[in-house]
Design brief:
alpha+beta, about 45% helix, Alpha-Beta Plaits, about 240 residues, 3 domains, Arc Repressor Mutant, subunit A, single chain, 4-stranded antiparallel beta sheet, 9 helices
């Protein structure tokens, strides 16, 4: 869930998805299909596709699976027609929840998401009720130990790469970029010998709210169950997790 630090969120996701690689590959494949359908099958000319392919490679998705997903998206192979949907609502404690899904059956996914919101103490709202609280942003995570550079050295590299800002935590350097600059900043860092742990375009909340422990636990349940759903790609909240 969104908080001060993306690093904690990413570590949680990776630990979880490592045990569910098949489901992860399915979701990554859908992302590639939609990206190729909307922007063409050439990653060099399609920033969204390039980012999706990179994430798939980082997850060790086989190259043939990646190529097949690109072909499906480009219309060269038969496949399901996925559409991108956003669901908005509130979780326990009034936390804003934004869900991004890719589905081949809008009615099924909408019913399932509504059920999960209701079951875990949330309320699914109308389009636009919380989306205004989030802005798209590129986030790049660099492991401080792996980078082997000081904070001052990293600051200079980040400025040269064209990132907007950097936050330093105990474990990581966390860079933010404009969404369209994500790939170029990542490549610039790579050319300087800096290994990127994670890079993604995410929805960043403009304000954070705090809730009690009970509501935070219930919200975590809601988010985890949404993330488990095959048609859900990402779940964003404006919870202040204190990370």
């Amino acid at each position: 869930m969104a908080g001060h630090s993306k690093w904690a969120q990413i570590k949680r996701k990776k630990a979880k998805t490592d045990a569910q690689r098949g489901k992860l590959f399915t979701k990554l494949g859908r992302e590639i299909i939609v990206a190729a359908r909307e922007g063409g099958g050439d990653p060099d000319g399609n920033a969204r596709l390039k980012a999706a392919v990179q994430r798939a490679k980082e997850a060790n998705m086989p190259n043939e699976n990646i190529a097949r997903a690109i072909q499906k998206g480009a219309g060269n192979l038969d496949g399901n027609a996925y559409e991108e949907l956003f669901y908005e609502g509130y979780g326990p404690g009034g936390v804003a929840v934004l869900v991004r899904g890719l589905t081949d059956n809008r009615n099924r996914t909408s019913a399932d998401v509504r059920h999960l919101f209701s079951k875990y103490g949330g309320n699914l709202g109308e389009a636009g009720c919380v989306a205004w609280q989030f802005q798209p942003q590129g986030v790049i995570i660099v492991d401080r130990v792996a980078a082997e550079v000081s904070e001052d050295e990293m600051t200079l590299l980040v400025l040269d790469a064209g990132a907007d800002d950097m936050v330093t935590t105990e474990e990581a350097f966390e860079l933010t970029t404009a969404p369209e600059e994500l790939n170029s900043v990542r490549e610039s860092l790579s050319n300087q010998g800096i290994e990127v742990a994670e890079a993604e375009i995410t929805m960043v909340p403009q304000t954070l709210i705090s809730v009690g422990d009970e509501d935070a636990e219930r919200l975590t349940e809601l988010v985890e169950m949404l993330e488990e759903h095959d048609d859900v790609q990402e779940v964003y909240t404006n919870l202040d997790s204190g990370e």
